[in-house]
Amino acid sequence: MLKNLKIGTKFNLILMLVFLVSIFVTGLALSRVLEQRAQNEVTSQALILIKTMNSVRSYTQNRINGLLAPRLATEPAFIPETVPAFSATEVFEYLRKNPEYENFLYKEATLNPTNLRDKADNFEAKLVEQFRQNPKTPEISGFRDFPDGQVFYIARPLAVTQQSCLQCHSTPDQAPKSLLATYGTENGFGWKLNDIIAAQIISVPSEDVFANANRTWKLIMGLLVAIFAIVVLLINYLIKKTVIQRIRKIEKIAQQVSTGDMSADFAEQSHDEIGGLAAAFNRMKASLEIAMNLLNQQNH
């Protein structure tokens, strides 16, 4: 079938094949690069925020707790600012009042929390169990669907690393009276040293980031398709002008010569391969003309 096609058609088929393969490979590679870039962007945002919250926790533990802890035994109500988890959560809620961060989430999801605000849901409880089953796992990340859209999360284990934490979380009789007065005796007890009791989770909205990456991909691919199309059309025009039309002209003259019209001339000004072919045809025509003249002379 290909043997019956004209040179121009064959060349166009090759160009289209190269065009399609190039677009496919380029699109696939570009998609992966942009997707990885979007992934890195949301991961970077999450890591910055989780490091910030850890700084708040450390400041509360090392500075605020020492100042306020003595008052826990005398105050009628518990002072939650002494708890690193409370301080980090409150600071993050202030951050969420900014419109650009309103869909970001921070939670120290706990299986048995003192403050029920920190109670882990089913998804978060599974993360805590994963950390408990694999204590050496430093971090778990992935995507989670919320009503407002998909988010990227990073979760890290939180363990009881200081003996002082057990003052409020071992047994009710060891806890400050102000804590019992505020939160009761049912929740947040039975913790043990070095036990993983929670997962620190930061959630970053990812749909907009990936949507921007998708729009960028479409824009770049559109430009590439347009550029490839222009290049194909330009090459096709040049091939037609510099090769196909000149070969057709030589073919037409050759047909005239084959019917005995020796006045036809393979006129070709260029010195390229096609010009050389035309010169060779002219020499062949001259040789043929001489041979025919000699043959006529012998016949007479």
Automatic annotation (TrEMBL):
Segments passing through the bilayer: 219-239
Matches recorded under InterPro entries: 2C_sensor_his_kinase, Cyt_c-like_dom, HAMP_dom, Tll0287-like_dom
This protein's name: histidine kinase
Listed Pfam families: HAMP, Tll0287-like
Signal peptide: none
Annotated catalysed reactions: ATP + protein L-histidine = ADP + protein N-phospho-L-histidine
Assigned keywords, A-Z: ATP-binding, Heme, Iron, Kinase, Membrane, Metal-binding, Nucleotide-binding, Transferase, Transmembrane, Transmembrane helix
Residue ranges occupied by any Cytochrome c domain in the UniProt entry: 144-285
EC number: 2.7.13.3
Key word DNA-binding present: no
Superkingdom per UniProt: Bacteria
One Gene Ontology term, aspect cellular component: membrane
Annotated organism of origin: Amazonocrinis nigriterrae CENA67
MF terms (GO), sorted A to Z: ATP binding; electron transfer activity; heme binding; metal ion binding; protein histidine kinase activity
PANTHER family reported in the protein's UniProt record: SENSOR PROTEIN CREC, SENSOR PROTEIN RSTB
GO biological process terms, semicolon-separated: signal transduction
Enzyme class: transferase
Domain spans labelled HAMP: 241-293
